[in-house]
Amino acid sequence: MSATVQVGDKIEDFTLPDETGTDRSLTELLAEGPVVLFFYPAALSPGCTAEACHFRDLAAEFAAVGARPVGISGDAVERQQQFADRHTLGMPLLSDADGAVRELFGVARGFSLAPTKRATFVIGQDRTVLEVVRSELRMNTHADRALAALRK
Predict the structure, then answer these.
(1) What residue ranges of the chain have pLDDT lower than 70?
(2) Which residue numbers are catalytic?
(3) CB of 146 closer than 8 Å to CB of 118
(4) Mind telling me which Gene3D superfamilies this protein's record contains (predicted)?
(5) How far lies 147's CA from each of 28, 109, 121, 123, 124, in Å?
(6) pLDDT score at 111
(7) Residues in Cβ contact with 33 at an 8 Å cutoff, skipping those fewer than 6 apart
(8) Could you identify which of 103, 110, 114, 140 might form a hypothetical disulfide with 41, taking C-beta atoms 3.0 to 4.6 angstroms apart as the criterion?
(9) Taking CA 82 as the corner, what is the angle to CA 119 and CA 141, rounded to the nearest 5 degrees?
(10) Selection from 113, 39, 24 nearest residue 73 by Cα
(11) Which residues neighbour 113 within 8 Å (Cβ) at sequence distance 6 or greater?
(12) Beta strands of 13-152 (E only): which ranges?
């Protein structure tokens, strides 16, 4: 089991396909500003939809602090595309199908129905973790706390 990522840790670069199948690296995503990487258990499930839509609804606030939310789960590219389209999310949704990035961040869970824990990491442009939000049940707290950290 991998170590859990904490505030102050440096994240190594990784590359995953987004909802269009385009490979996106962390370095590339960070080129324009901090990234709020939110891991969610399953695209299109009620909790993950509520969480992702809250990030979407706060898009202007994130843009105002120069940051962008990026979703990530073990869902296939096609499912991420359905999720993005159905809710007009307007943010990259990365497909971590083999779970390598989930392991890197220490958010893997043992059972296969929901292999990813719900957790959010605010990552600065130098790949340093500025904030970590862990809450399985309070969906809005992820975007709210990420935004608060970016405004500090």
Answers:
(1) 1-3, 111-113
(2) 48
(3) no
(4) Glutaredoxin
(5) 21, 26, 11, 12, 13
(6) 66
(7) 65, 66, 67, 68, 125
(8) 114
(9) 25
(10) 39
(11) none
(12) 15-17, 23-25, 35-39, 68-73, 93-95, 119-123, 129-134
- In the chain, DSSP assigns E strands to 15-17, 23-25, 35-39, 68-73, 93-95, 119-123, 129-134
Name the pairing type of β-strands 119-123 and 129-134.
antiparallel
Predicted confidence (pLDDT) per residue in 15-27, tens digit: 999 999 999 999 9
pLDDT value for 1: 39
Q: Which amino acid is at 83?
A: F
**Amino acid identity, position 144:** D
Q: Amino acid letter at 115?
A: P
Q: What are phi and psi of 51, to 5 degrees?
A: -65, -50
